[in-house]
Specification:
The complex is a heterodimer. Chain A starts with a strand and ends with a strand. Chain A is an all-beta fold. In chain A, strands 2, 4, 5, 6, 9, 10 and 11 form a seven-stranded mixed beta sheet that branches. In chain A, strands 1-3-8-7 form a four-stranded antiparallel beta sheet, with no helix packed on it. In chain A, a hairpin with a 5-residue loop joins strand 7 (65-69) and strand 8. Chain A has no helices and eleven strands. Chain B is mainly β. Chain B has strands at residues 3-7, 10-14, 19-26, 32-38, 44-49, 56-58, 61-66, 71-76, 85-92, 99-101, 105-110. In chain B, strands 2, 4, 5, 9, 10 and 11 form a six-stranded mixed beta sheet that branches. A five-stranded antiparallel beta sheet of chain B has the order 1-3-8-7-6, with no helix packed on it. The chains are: A mainly beta, B mainly beta. Chain A binds chain B through residues 4, 31, 33, 35, 41-45, 48, 50, 55-56, 58-59, 89, 91, 93, 98-101, 103-109, 111, and chain B through 4, 31-32, 34, 36, 40-45, 48, 50, 88, 90, 92, 95-104.
Chain lengths: 115, 111
């Protein structure tokens, strides 16, 4: 596609429910990243995929958070038993390769609100 | 512990003014520094800097990196209201896939 797309654009859920956020990277990009932006804060790294494997998942805040990527393309970030502190904008980015010289291009994000 | 600090946190300028945004960093095994502009949701890429002293320019925006003093600046000349945004600085260190972001600088340009 022309750019990184994410769905849904907004999600409101009740505390304790599970949510799934989807990211479609730019066609041909092998690396995919998830970040989180809480109100008034900078972007916080969550996890990075190179192909279907995740060399760095150090930013996942707890074991309620997981992500997978299949077919080297679409990725899903799952949050189980959501808590109010999970409310944030979840941003996905992709890059052609996974190296330090590769520019990451961001999607529009999913705004998650946990009531 | 790695850190990226941006200053100022926010500023308000009049159209036509020049602004200078600062980003200082401490990161293990520095590889690159990136600047992004965030207006609504998706940060949009501005510059990637890897070498000291080489200015990158795009229209009214320019940026330079000092790897000895561990900082970068982003300049915007002849500001326009469309420059109003949050400007984010990020660095790449040991984990090649991981951008470490500063808190951002909110720029408001008034007519």
């Amino acid at each position: 596609g022309a750019g990184v797309s994410q769905s849904p654009s907004n999600k409101v859920t009740e505390k304790g429910k599970d949510v799934e956020l989807r990211c479609d990277p730019i066609s041909g990009h092998t690396a995919l990243y998830w970040y989180r932006q809480s109100l008034g804060q900078g972007l916080e790294f969550l996890i990075y995929f190179q192909g279907n494997s995740a060399p760095d998942k150090s930013g996942l805040p707890s074991d309620r958070f997981s992500a997978e990527r299949t077919g080297g393309s679409v990725s899903t970030l799952t949050i189980q038993r959501t808590q109010q502190e999970d409310s944030a904008v979840y941003l996905c980015a992709s890059s052609f390769g996974g190296g330090a010289g590769e520019t990451q291009y961001f999607g529009p994000g999913t705004r998650l609100l946990v009531l | 512990e790695d850190k990226v600090v941006q200053s100022p946190l926010s500023l308000v300028v009049h159209e036509g003014d020049t602004v200078t945004l600062n980003c200082s960093y401490e990161v293990t095994n520095f590889r690159s520094l990136l600047w992004y502009k965030q207006e609504k949701k998706a940060p949009t890429f501005l510059f990637m800097l890897t070498s000291s002293g080489i200015e990158k320019k795009s229209g009214r925006l320019s940026s330079i990196l000092d790897k000895k003093e561990l900082f970068s600046i982003l300049n915007i000349t002849a500001t326009q209201t469309g420059d109003s945004a949050i400007y984010l600085c990020a660095v790449v260190g040991d984990s090649w896939g991981k951008l470490q972001f500063g808190a951002g600088t909110q720029v408001v340009v008034t007519p």
